[in-house]
């Protein structure tokens, strides 16, 4: 049994980024940049007004003299001439500052009588002016390779006039469920059968991580069926098998695919849940064998598959960060497997979040998994702990 960190390191080291493709910005949210995006223009392109009012020479506003309005500058329609001493131009938010003006007198601070504008206050040079290039200049780096496009930054790319952006192709992740006991949701299970849920939950995780889940079906526990199903993963970036990873006579993944081109890197890790995790290659395709227990499959999805997808995307974030919380209940000493306890983390005013593991940690219990928002992490051989002691945890918010 190898440690979790070593297993993940070996998986990530074996993967390469997916090819670059260009997407239009309207479809780019959630994608990861393969190359930096540089501004193709300067923003604002000229000095602009930040308010509705009058473009003035600041020096003309403190002397009690009225100004003469000689024109108008609106957003998209600038004033053509320039402003001389004692002159002003009516201006609106987002309009270019006319030549000669150096400040904006907001209309609340002016009295207008026809073309005669009386400033009620003196303004300093630069008041309410957004200088050219305030936001960015042509050639500035807008976003770096590895960053994910989303609501925070997609508007910046648009403003930089980058209508197409280079992103990594979404990794295609083939999901192969295994087991005679499985039927699809909506089908009528026989007396000893259950509904297959892993391809859906792990598929949803794949999509959230930026990959494209490809459900290649359920293989019954027959060697020929499994070998045949494995071939359907051709063209995918990774084959994820669900179940059949353990040691029983019906756990066939290694045995069957072993004779058909499966090259195992490692099998079995010091982790709970997730002991029978397997990694290798099936022909050209990296193969990740997740345990069949539904919670084990999903937890291993968080710890290994999501990082693998982020690595193939060249994303900045691969490994889920460990956070520090306070334990909400007493725990017994841990054994030699690193433990990932389904928990509820609640933020607290008086310190780190309170992280309370559920009492039932059976790896078949989807009802518990669905309520958890965190995994409390305990190293191998951790001593017994009392409520209130510090505990590391991983948030599951990215699955929400
Ligand atoms: N003698 C031993 N038995 C087991 C060991 C062991 O070390 N020695 N390890 C246990 C651990 S830990 C796990 S985890 C499981 C993993 O076994 P497999 O990966 O071979 O998974 P299966 O046996 O195929 O299934 C386990 C369990 O999960 C259910 N399952 C499978 N696929 C799905 C699906 N798509 N949707 C919903 N549920 C699924 C399946 O019916 C079983 O109940 O092995 C332990 N045994
Ligand atoms: O590792 Mo198993 O995943 O403990 O149930």
UniProtKB/TrEMBL annotation:
Catalytic activity reported: adenylyl-molybdopterin + molybdate = Mo-molybdopterin + AMP + H(+)
Entry cofactors: Mg(2+)
InterPro entries xref list: MoaB/Mog-like_dom_sf (IPR036425), MoaB/Mog_dom (IPR001453), MoCF_biosynth_CS (IPR008284), MoeA-like (IPR038987), MoeA_C_domain_IV (IPR005111), MoeA_C_domain_IV_sf (IPR036688), MoeA_linker/N (IPR005110), MoeA_linker/N_sf (IPR036135)
Pathway recorded for this protein: Cofactor biosynthesis; molybdopterin biosynthesis
E.C. no: 2.10.1.1
Gene Ontology molecular functions: metal ion binding; molybdopterin molybdotransferase activity
One GO term of the biological process aspect: Mo-molybdopterin cofactor biosynthetic process
GO cellular component, one term: cytosol
Keywords assigned: Magnesium, Metal-binding, Molybdenum, Molybdenum cofactor biosynthesis, Transferase
Superkingdom in the source lineage: Bacteria
CDD domains: MoeA
Domain MoaB/Mog span(s) in chain numbering: 174-311
Family as reported in the entry's similarity comment: Belongs to the MoeA family.
Cited function: Catalyzes the insertion of molybdate into adenylated molybdopterin with the concomitant release of AMP.
NCBIfam families found in the cross-reference section: Glp_gephyrin
Identification of the protein by name: Molybdopterin molybdenumtransferase
Species whose genome carries this gene: Minwuia thermotolerans
Lineage of origin: Bacteria, Pseudomonadati, Pseudomonadota, Alphaproteobacteria, Minwuiales
């Amino acid at each position: 049994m190898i440690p979790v960190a070593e297993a993940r390191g070996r998986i990530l080291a074996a993967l390469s980024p997916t090819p670059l493709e260009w997407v239009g910005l309207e479809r780019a949210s959630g994608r990861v940049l393969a190359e930096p995006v540089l501004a193709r223009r300067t923003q604002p392109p000229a000095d602009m007004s930040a308010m509705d009012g009058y473009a003035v020479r600041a020096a003309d506003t403190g002397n009690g003299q009225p100004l003469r309005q000689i024109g108008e500058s609106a957003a998209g329609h600038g004033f053509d001439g320039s402003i001389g001493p004692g002159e002003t131009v009516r201006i609106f938010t987002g309009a270019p500052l006319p030549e000669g003006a150096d400040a904006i007198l907001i209309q609340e601070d002016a009295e207008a009588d026809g073309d005669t504008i009386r400033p009620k206050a003196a303004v300093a040079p630069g008041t309410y002016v957004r200088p050219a290039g305030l936001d960015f200049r042509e050639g500035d780096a807008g976003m770096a390779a590895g960053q994910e496009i989303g609501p925070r930054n997609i508007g910046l790319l648009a403003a930089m006039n980058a209508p197409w952006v280079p992103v990594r192709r979404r990794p295609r992740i083939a999901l192969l469920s295994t087991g005679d006991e499985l039927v699809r949701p909506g089908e009528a299970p026989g007396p000893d059968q259950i509904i297959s849920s892993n391809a859906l939950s792990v598929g949803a995780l794949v999509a959230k991580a930026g990959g494209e889940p490809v459900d290649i079906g359920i293989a019954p526990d027959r060697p020929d069926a499994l070998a045949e199903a494995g071939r359907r993963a051709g063209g995918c970036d990774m084959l994820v098998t669900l179940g059949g990873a353990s040691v029983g006579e019906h756990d066939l993944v290694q045995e069957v695919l072993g004779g058909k081109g499966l090259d195992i890197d490692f099998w079995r890790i010091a982790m709970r849940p997730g002991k029978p995790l397997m990694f290798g290659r099936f022909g050209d395709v990296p193969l990740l064998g997740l345990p069949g227990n539904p919670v084990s499959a999903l937890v291993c999805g968080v710890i290994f598959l999501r990082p693998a997808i982020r690595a193939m995307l060249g994303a900045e974030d691969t490994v889920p960060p460990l956070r520090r919380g306070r334990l909400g209940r007493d725990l017994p000493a841990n054994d030699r497997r690193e433990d990932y306890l389904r928990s509820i983390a609640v933020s607290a005013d008086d310190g780190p979040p309170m992280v309370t593991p559920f009492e039932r940690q059976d790896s078949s219990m989807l009802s518990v998994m669905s309520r958890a928002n965190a995994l409390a992490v305990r190293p191998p051989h951790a001593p017994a702990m009392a409520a209130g002691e510090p505990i590391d945890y991983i948030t599951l918010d990215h699955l929400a």
